[in-house]
Amino acid sequence: DAGVTQSPTHLIKTRGQQVTLRCSPKSGHDTVSWYQQALGQGPQFIFQYYEEEERQRGNFPDRFSGHQFPNYSSELNVNALLLGDSALYLCASSVGQVYEAFFGQGTRLTVV
Amino acid sequence: AQKVTQAQTEISVVEKEDVTLDCVYETRDTTYYLFWYKQPPSGELVFLIRRNSFDEQNEISGRYSWNFQKSTSSFNFTITASQVVDSAVYFCAATGGFKTIFGAGTRLFVKA
User: Fold this and answer.
1) Under DSSP, is residue B56 helix (H, G, I), strand (E, B) or coil?
2) Which residues in chain B touch residue A58, judged by CB atoms under 8 angstroms apart?
3) What is the pLDDT of residues A31-40, one digit of tens each?
4) Minimal Cα–Cα distance from A38 to chain B, Å?
5) Among partner residues A42, A98, A105, which is closest to B103 by beta-carbon distance?
6) Of B45, B47, B101, which is closest to A90 when you measure between CB atoms?
7) Would you write out chain A's pLDDT as a tens digit for each of its 112 residues?
8) What's the pLDDT score for residue B30?
């Protein structure tokens, strides 16, 4: 049984560009959450998707948007990239919010 | 608003010592869930333990144990007989209202 998979694992973008990160949840999981983890810090909650709707959002600007597909996979889009967007982006899937989340290995985004 | 505080930035112990990681949380939710995750150098967060806000029973699972005290809003985590493989960053997290907040993490070094 595959766990949470994220793609790509690494990418480099230029300031002002747009990026799309992808996440496939663990089998049987219906909820996907996205986090941004800067170096040496804890993961910061971006938003959570359930039944293709954004159910909750953290303190991130509208440049960060997402989508969940009928098969529960999800995308994170970031527009107008800033240098400060450089971080490890983690996707986590769960069954609702009661149970533990399973994390992917993350996408390391570098903005130059 | 939710907040999770891990006051210990780094802890260094010698193998076989017991080590306790502290966590203090703040939340307005009446129902919430508390978690501990481990992040080894590979980057993928690994679930360790979960506790519901309505169950203060403390338990032991192998070398892991936890102490949940609602009165002090603390959710401390203990590793008994630490091993070198326990070296990692440990995160405490609180989930409520479809949002998960992580602490800044405690880096644990276990020396042989």
Assistant:
1) coil
2) 99
3) 999 999 999 9
4) 10
5) A42
6) B45
7) 679 999 999 999 999 999 999 999 999 999 999 999 999 999 999 999 999 999 999 999 999 999 999 999 999 999 999 999 999 999 999 987 667 889 999 999 999 9
8) 87
Within 8 A of B25 by CB-CB distance, chain A residues are: none
Torsion, Cα of B68, B69, B70, B71 (10° steps): -170
Q: Where are the beta strands (DSSP E) in chain B?
A: 3-5, 10-14, 19-21, 24-26, 33-39, 46-52, 60-61, 64-69, 74-79, 88-96, 99-102, 106-111
Burial class (CB in 10 A: 0-12, 13-18, 19+), B67: middle
Q: Which amino acid type is present at position A36? A: Q
Tokens of A84: 């400060």
